[in-house]
């Protein structure tokens, strides 16, 4: 497969667009009101803290034409957005090159070039105390990354590589994930400030789940390490998520890998509880019915029954 260097890979040929819309809604239902759960309030932090791929990152608000602009240090762009810097002395400009885009800027210039196309900036690159700063939102989005804003709480930024990895997990591009997932924790980095985890989408595919486990993803992982920064605490194991969607083959594989069926999350639901609840939703909830149509035969009452029977038998065997 050839991946264009001029736009972020989004795995479009693998992703069913409507599933990508429906599943986050279901993930929200799973973690909130249907179980009487309370959406956890994000801990108050310094207004507009910036995080790039989960790491706290310094930035500044600099004054430009009587207004304050969010600016990010050039060195941060190269290190955390993984952009290579090239200085063109004769033009007094620099070029930032990444896996997906090429950006050219000049100090105090309100125009920038991205992949040969000229854009107008709200604020130009500025220099303060010897440090060059670039406009935050423009630089992140034009590099191929993604910026989420939670009012004055935080800026949550995904680097271009993290964004592409998320898209591949959601879109079930196993080979892309095989090549680019170097640390299993990247699959547990929230997609945005709502706290949704990429790994939860992997249960659509047995091959993707197998790959995550091969890459070292803990089979019973369900900790949101960024719970204080997100407004939902998405705590579910792969087994619980697969059971909730009646993914019988995935559930069987995870049990063979030692996944704990008795583990319960903050809503006090274990895998069997989720499977029984998912079956009820399939029977009563139009959203579940629409999802079952999109995924084909995978989400069916028959598969829910098989999943429930398997979990019961496994739990009885463990209990002796």
UniProtKB/TrEMBL annotation:
Q: Which Pfam families match?
A: Ank (PF00023), Cu_amine_oxidN1 (PF07833)
Location of the Copper amine oxidase-like N-terminal domain: 52-152
Identify the stretch annotated as signal peptide in this record.
none
Looking at the UniProt entry, the stretches that span the membrane are none
Q: Which domain of life is it from?
A: Bacteria
Please give the name of this protein: Copper amine oxidase-like N-terminal domain-containing protein
Q: Which organism is it from?
A: Cohnella luojiensis
């Amino acid at each position: 497969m050839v991946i264009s260097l001029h736009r972020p890979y989004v795995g479009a040929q693998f992703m069913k667009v409507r599933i990508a819309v429906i599943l986050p809604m279901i993930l929200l239902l799973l973690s909130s009101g249907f179980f009487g759960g309370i959406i956890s309030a994000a801990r108050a932090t310094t207004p507009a803290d910036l995080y790039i791929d989960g790491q706290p990152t310094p930035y500044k608000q600099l004054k430009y034409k009587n207004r304050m602009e969010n600016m990010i240090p050039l060195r941060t762009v190269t290190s955390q957005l993984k952009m290579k810097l090239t200085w063109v002395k004769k033009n007094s400009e620099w070029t930032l090159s990444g896996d997906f885009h090429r950006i050219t800027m000049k100090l105090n210039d309100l125009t920038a070039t991205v992949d040969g196309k000229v854009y107008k900036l709200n604020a130009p690159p500025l220099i303060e105390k010897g440090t060059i700063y670039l406009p935050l939102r423009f630089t992140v989005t034009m590099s191929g990354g993604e910026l989420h804003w939670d009012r004055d709480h935080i800026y949550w930024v995904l680097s271009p590589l993290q964004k592409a990895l998320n898209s591949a997990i959601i879109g079930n591009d196993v080979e892309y994930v095989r090549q680019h997932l170097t640390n299993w924790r990247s699959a547990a980095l929230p997609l945005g400030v709502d706290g949704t985890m990429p790994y939860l989408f992997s249960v659509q595919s047995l091959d993707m789940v197998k790959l995550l486990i091969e890459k070292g993803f803990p089979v019973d992982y369900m900790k949101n390490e960024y719970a204080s920064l997100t407004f939902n605490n998405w705590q579910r194991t792969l087994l619980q998520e697969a059971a909730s969607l009646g993914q019988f083959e995935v559930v069987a594989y995870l049990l063979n890998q030692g996944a704990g069926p008795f583990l319960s999350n903050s809503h006090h639901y274990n895998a069997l509880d989720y499977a029984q609840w998912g079956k009820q939703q399939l029977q009563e909830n139009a959203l579940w019915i629409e999802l079952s149509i999109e995924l084909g035969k995978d989400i069916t009452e028959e598969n829910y029954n098989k999943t429930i029977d398997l979990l019961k038998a496994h739990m009885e065997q463990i209990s002796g």
